[in-house]
Amino acid sequence: MGPTKNLSAVLMKKGDLQLVDRPIPEPGNGEVQIKIHSVGICGSDVHYWTNGEIGDFVVKAPMVLGHESCGTVSKVGEGVDHLKVGDRVAIEPAVPCRRCKYCKGGRYNLCKDIACCATPPYDGSLARYYVHAADFCYKLPDNVSEEEGALLEPLSVGIHACRRAGVSLGSVVLICGAGPIGLVNLLTAKSMGASKVLMTDIDAGRLAVAKTLGADHTVLVDTKDAKTLAEKIENLLGDAPNITIECSGAPPSIALAITATSSGGCVVLVGLGPSVVELPVVDAAVREVDIRGIFRYVNCYPTALAMVASGTVNVKPLVTHRFTLEQALQAFETTRTGADGAIKVMIKCEEN
Ligand code: NAD
Ligand code: ZN
Q1: Average pLDDT, the chain
Q2: How many angstroms separate the CA atoms of 193 and 306, rounded?
Q3: Is the CB of 186 under 6 A from ligand 1?
Q4: Which of 177, 196, 300, 325 has the most CB atoms around its CB within 10 Å?
Q5: pLDDT, position 352
Q6: Global pTM?
């Protein structure tokens, strides 16, 4: 470990986020050291902060938060030949074993031996310097900014979900929940050829943002009666959606996703809420509505980067707030409360 000049946003324990100066990590074999430029805050970072755990992942020791990140290579470890000092890179945060049947089968996101930034016990990248596997770093072309590089992380979730859903030319898509994840699914579905996208939310402000980002229709969820909502959705779309991407995790919304999807269609579960939920499964069974899950993304970063670099997908409007690393607590508070229309909050880790 080198000198300590590595200000880092450390979750000491549940509810206790502190800025701590830590040693600068040195890159090992196959790794690069990255001077972090931008880190987006994700709902899961906030959740670890407020709850200290997500499912089976429990914060037991101090952990650096942040996993939607981008920076500049500052040191190159042995055995790395595709990156050099000065390259700007987007960081794919979850690094698998590369040897198990899932990794070898191309579904490395399902690897049981995966180390992901800011998933306990692994440190995240909300710091001045961070070390990562070089093969999970993607060099940005000059026309892609560091903030866009950080946004490849949520965009990759949208790409994986839309791929699993089978979105293609002419798809009619319902997206439940218009948070950052619902919105990246909107951008992806549109660019994959969806003819119509309808978004739901319980928050009118978020639906207004969805409209500006290209949603054809929006429905404000003001009742728990799925049948009424499904009818409203079908009337607006002119047909029941053949694909529904559930991005809220709210149990009534998952139920609506099944009810609203046309027979023979597909529901993709992106939102993660309570682990056990009551659902209309017989309706799904007899109408052959497929229910699929997704976990993060796999083989999506190169696609996400290509889509942003070519201008096909514009992720810039997702960023509503910017803070410095020193203001991390304020940034987390803004994400937690969604104050003043916050969608994606960015933290700039590089000093001016
Ligand atoms: P978010 O909390 O910002 O967005 C969720 C949105 O759903 C909010 O706008 C909320 O108002 C809305 N909502 C709540 N109840 C609703 C209802 N009944 N009907 C319609 N909308 C409703 O979160 P986010 O960052 O956008 O993430 C969305 C979800 O995706 C979270 O559950 C997150 O854990 C999950 N996620 C899953 C993966 C994965 O790999 N499966 C990856 C990233 C995020
Ligand atoms: Zn593996």
Answers
A1: 97
A2: 16
A3: no
A4: 177
A5: 77
A6: 0.97
